[in-house]
Amino acid sequence: MDIKEMLIQAGYEVIGEGKNGEEAVDLVYQRKPDIVIMDIKMPRMDGIKATRIIRNFKHSAVILLTAYSQRELVNDAKEAGVIGYLVKPVSEEDLIPAIEIAKRQQEQFRLLERDIQLLKKSIAERKIIEKAKGKLMKQFSCSEERAYEWMRKKSMEHRISMFKLAEKILEK
């Protein structure tokens, strides 16, 4: 049974098939699948090079299938960001668990990326609040604690975030 048939029979949706590495990259870019399954040895562009490009899109996990298990290929695949590596012949008993684990790892990756973005935003906002607090300390010759308390009080009075208040303070 070929891979596509295995996937369909197991209830997965196959949204595209590429004849070579370049086509695979184009399909992934256009259709944004959760999981990409491809061979290492493909015309025009090998699976490892295609994986490096696909991983830059950040929306697809890659599982490589290959007839080769040499350590060098495995290391290249790891460096490229492959989430799964299966040596042919591949059975449904091998493929389905690899897909499920890849899906879960991809979900975890997305959650981590979201958390990183939230942390970066929080740090950027905190820097603005600190600048505004410094401006108030200088302007009113007061302590850091007193400037912060004043900002907190005004933030609650006007029902705006400390960040929005800090932006207004820095505009003046």
Structural notes for this entry:
It is a single chain. With 172 residues, the chain is mainly α. Helices cover 66% and strands 9% of the residues. It contains 7 helices and 3 strands; from the N terminus they run H-H-E-H-E-H-E-H-H-H. The chain has a 3-stranded parallel sheet, sandwiched between helices. Helix 4 links the parallel strand 2 (61-66) and strand 3. Helix 3 (47-57) packs parallel to helix 4 and helix 5 (92-140) packs across helix 7. The chain is elongated.
Quick structural overview:
The protein has 7 helices and 3 strands, in the order ααβαβαβααα. It has 172 residues and is mostly helical.
CA-based gyration radius: 25 Å
Tell me the total number of β-strands. Answer: 3
Overall geometry comes to elongated
State the helical fraction: 55-70%
Number of helices: 7
* Average predicted local confidence, pLDDT: 94
Main sheet record: 3 strands, parallel
* Low-confidence sequence ranges: none
Order of helical and strand elements: HHEHEHEHHH
Our estimate of the beta-strand percent is 5-15%
Please give the alpha-carbon distance between the first and last residues. Answer: 70 Å
**Structural class based on helices, strands and sheet pairing:** mainly alpha
How is the secondary structure organized here?
Layout: H1 3-9, H2 21-31, E1 35-39, H3 47-57, E2 61-66, H4 71-80, E3 84-87, H5 92-140, H6 144-158, H7 162-171
Parallel strand pairs: 1-2, 2-3
Helix pairs in contact: 2-3, 3-4, 5-6, 5-7, 6-7
What descriptors fit this protein?
single chain, 172 residues, mainly alpha, 7 helices
